Amino acid sequence: MRLILLGPPGAGKGTQAQRIVERHGIPQLSTGDMLRAAVSAGTDVGKRAKAVMDAGKLVSDDIVIAIVSERIDQPDCANGFILDGFPRTLVQADATEKMLSTKDLDLSVVIELRVDDKELIRRVSGRYSCAACGSVYHDTDHKPSKDGVCDKCGATEFKRRPDDNAETMASRLEVYYKETSPLIGYYYAKGKLKTVDGMAEMDAVTASIESILAGL
Ligand code: AP5
Ligand code: ZN
Fold first, then answer.
1. What residues bind ATP, as annotated (predicted)?
2. Which residues are catalytic?
């Protein structure tokens, strides 16, 4: 199963991707996570990406396409993968198609999570994650069951993203509508698009996604 989770910042792509990983045993390929890892490691790519990410703009197509292309060749992607936050431009979508067709592979489905702007801003401004395993939480909606302890790994340190502030979020949303939302029509025309109400409660979103995956 090879699927794309498409949606604006804060739509729940990362949250739902983690749940698909647990249920289906295929890896989550998040370009945002990969770029943040490169920033932390201080690699050349990380140095070039940091200012762009902090401003809420898109890192260049060449860089992200190269990262994903290398990642999907890893053995753990042999049975499928979830693309989370990629592709994000029409150039990236065309590159994805080429990457897969040279390997004789096809995309199973593109799942669009639809959420309105006010809710996206609310979600992103309350978001934090486990510093050890990356599990995502929210100040009011989704706290760990034991205060200050990660449900998944038991760690007690958490962090917030530097781009989760009102100013950068405005830029991320603008970029989404301009650069990424055209992919909705692109995948609809290919008969690959399924849209889910991302405004619903987390478990309900998971149930909608599971019913799409069950029908593949
Ligand atoms: P990236 O890391 O991909 O960020 P994003 O797309 O902005 O998406 P987010 O991670 O913010 O949101 P999400 O949809 O995963 O939501 P989440 O599940 O966390 O990219 C960051 C930057 O990297 C980009 O701005 C760009 O610079 C660069 N980049 C990355 N990929 C690139 C590419 N392909 N090309 C170029 N540049 C690239 O949920 C959000 C919050 O809401 C959480 O707190 C969660 O607990 C809560 N929540 C989730 N679901 C629900 C629900 N149903 N109800 C209530 N709360 C919920
Ligand atoms: Zn954890």
1. 10-15, 127, 136-137, 200
2. 13, 88, 127, 161, 172
